[in-house]
Design a protein that fits this description.
about 55% strand, seven-stranded mixed beta sheet, single chain, about 120 residues, four-stranded antiparallel beta sheet, mainly beta
């Protein structure tokens, strides 16, 4: 099983960036997918997640109203990030699990770096 994240980069504060994650190696029907992030010196934290149908999403309070998750297929999830802040700087990881709340995801991507300059 492999989760391949892409789309990270450098952006100015207030700007936007989109991430994409493609999963392969098994069926992900019934699996939730989502995003986590880890800033330098901090623990990994949940950003947002969506059900396999994409009919339900949830977000961390810190990104509500600015980030949008979309489940584009059973194996693809995207993260649209608007109004980015320097504190959004982190390595972003996509994840998947049969637990719809993604409490302890079984599958992880390799991470993609997002840097927001002030």
């Amino acid at each position: 099983v492999q989760l391949q994240a892409s789309g990270g980069g450098l952006v100015s504060a207030g700007g936007s960036l989109s991430l994409s994650c493609v999963a392969s190696g098994r069926t992900f029907r019934g699996y939730a997918m989502g995003w986590f992030r880890q800033a330098p010196g901090k623990e990994r934290e949940f950003v947002g997640g969506t059900t396999w149908r994409g009919d339900s999403t949830r977000y961390a309070d810190s990104v509500k109203g600015r980030f949008t998750i979309s489940r584009e297929s059973q194996t693809t999830v995207a993260l649209r990030m608007n109004s980015l802040k320097p504190e959004d700087t982190a390595v972003y990881y996509c994840a998947a699990d049969s637990d719809l709340l993604l409490r302890r995801p079984k599958y992880w991507g390799q991470g993609t770096l997002v840097t927001v300059s002030s």
